[in-house]
Recover the amino acids of this structure.
């Protein structure tokens, strides 16, 4: 989308690059029925994982991003696990999953520690004391090596879905 | 920040699953007993609305929490008093 002015530039991010290890973490992972602590390494033990960092539940980018991923049907087979992560609470995730009928599980990280580990913290202007991850997507293989990484450099910015699809196809 | 960069979870090792509701005193009682016996357990937090707790219904045939599923003994059980008695009997000192 072309706008007649500059959007906010977030600057460079020191995030894990393709070929580097994806930092492990453990957080409540929310389904439409319950949540429990799950580590990224628990998920990669079953194969590749697409980890999608998204703005808090209720924001329009959250809805856009998950609508697109759902439409593309990523992770509907056995070969890839798709999970999201935002700072929203497990209760908000449960409602989001139910209302959007999302076929995905979402990590809850209200204190934003995972974004710190991944170098993608975004301090929100006009929301004092609130930070969340930049929109980002990491395709991670079964050895927890990053195969593809995309991190927003502007606010707002949306993932390059076709590039992610190509990376999934290359797995 | 409390996590390390190594494998963070012991989920795979837990043999007891506790279905619980946040701030439910009966659930806390069971969790306390599990901790007292130093048992590794995985908590699954469920929906406050009783009618929507289908995950609990599937494993236990009813929707009340707490419920434990003990893979070691094959026992699935509800009601905190019964669960605590079961834990005392199974894992307590003779």
């Amino acid at each position: 989308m072309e706008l007649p002015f500059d959007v906010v530039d977030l600057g460079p991010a020191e995030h894990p690059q393709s070929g580097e290890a994806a930092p492990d973490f453990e957080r409540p992972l929310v389904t439409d029925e319950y949540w429990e602590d799950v580590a990224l390494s628990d998920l990669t033990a079953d194969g590749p994982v697409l980890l999608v960092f998204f703005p808090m539940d209720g924001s329009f980018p959250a809805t856009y991003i998950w609508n697109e991923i759902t439409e593309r049907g990523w992770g509907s087979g056995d070969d890839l696990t798709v999970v999201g992560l935002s700072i929203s609470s497990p209760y908000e995730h449960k409602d989001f999953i139910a209302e959007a009928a999302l076929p995905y599980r979402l990590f809850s990280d209200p204190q934003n520690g995972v974004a710190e580990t991944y170098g993608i913290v975004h301090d929100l202007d006009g929301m004092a004391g609130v930070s969340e991850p930049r929109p980002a997507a990491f395709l991670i293989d079964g050895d927890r090596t990053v195969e593809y990484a995309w991190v927003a450099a502007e606010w707002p910015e949306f993932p390059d879905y076709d590039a992610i699809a190509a990376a999934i196809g290359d797995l | 920040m409390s996590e390390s960069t190594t494998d963070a979870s012991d989920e795979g090792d837990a043999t007891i699953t506790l279905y619980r509701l946040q701030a439910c005193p009966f659930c806390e009682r069971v969790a306390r007993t599990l901790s007292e016996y130093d048992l590794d357990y995985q908590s699954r937090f469920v929906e406050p609305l009783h009618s929507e707790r289908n995950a609990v219904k599937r494993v236990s045939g009813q929707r009340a929490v707490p419920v434990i599923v003990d893979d070691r003994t094959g026992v699935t059980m509800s009601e905190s008093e019964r669960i605590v008695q079961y834990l005392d009997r199974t894992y307590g000192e003779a």
The CA atoms of residues 36 and 92 of chain B lie 9 Å apart.
